[in-house]
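Known limitations

Structure tokens in this collection are predictions and should be treated as such. Users comparing against experimental data should check residue numbering before alignment. To illustrate the layout, the record for Alcohol dehydrogenase is reproduced below. The input appears on top and the generated tokens appear beneath it.
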Amino acid sequence: MQAWQVHQNGEPAEAMRLLEVDRPAPGDGQVLLKVRAANINFPDALMCRGQYQVRPPLPFTPGVEICGETEDGRRVIANPALPHGGFAEYAVADAAALLPAPDALDDAEAAALHIGYQTGWFGLHRRARLEAGETLLVHAAAGGVGSAAVQLGKAAGARVIGVVGGADKAQVARELGCDVVIDRRTEDVIGAVKEATGGRGADVIYDPVGGEAYTQSTKVVAFEGRIVVVGFASGSIPSPALNHALVKNYAILGLHWGLYNTKNPKLVLHCHEQLTELAARGAIKPLVSERVPLSAAADAVQRVADGVTTGRIAVVPTLENGAAA
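Generated tokens:
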């Protein structure tokens, strides 16, 4: 089978190599899956660079989120068991962690439903306890993680403010349903948020960016607001001033979604059931901006690493010459 492998850490476009390799052999409690679609996540780029908290042994195949097919024909969502990731024709995954792919979504959309939407659901509902009528601010609102939070916020009845970088991404955020869109490249984020909220600020802030975005969040968070920290796509990890959280009376909430798989897996299944219901009634629909063939995976991962994409890019092995087979 064909699979992308990383033999030496570096930038995805240089480190990933498409090779002919043997199909992976499932271990105890694992199953072999035919990859129908593999969603690209920012951690895939970080793993190529050797900068992610999970460091699979070299060589490894990236791709942490797939829609796959079991040997008995079931369509499932899974997190492949590294080092046999999803940017390949076949992957392996833990049998106990397989989730049914929603009928309302195609393969690429189903692959994109998992990590980003689970993170959004846990961040907004489990950690921040977002309520209908509250104001939600989402950084990088047109990205894969941000777009999921925007849709989930709207589904929960929140007023959503999206912060993006560039006119194209601003248009995507509007189409996603943001009530207010702020282009950080041309607008003063702090001033624009205060104007949009009458000076009150946002009740919940969803931050997958870190760095300057986090600093801005502390200046526009409302009384008893909650800042949910879900990642550091900017590459800069902030050092929060806890005295500031004290005097402004806001909460800083960390979210590592992966921990729920070991600490409380029943909640992951419950979340998936909620997401499946939302997808069935059209309240959420993963934004898949591109579907690319397996041969184009390295370039696509590099573009995600460079922050120039919107929504999700799905690698679909059955695509030929960029068109559905």
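For this record: The radius of gyration is 19 Å. Residues 321-325 have pLDDT under 50 and may be disordered. Please report discrepancies through the issue tracker.
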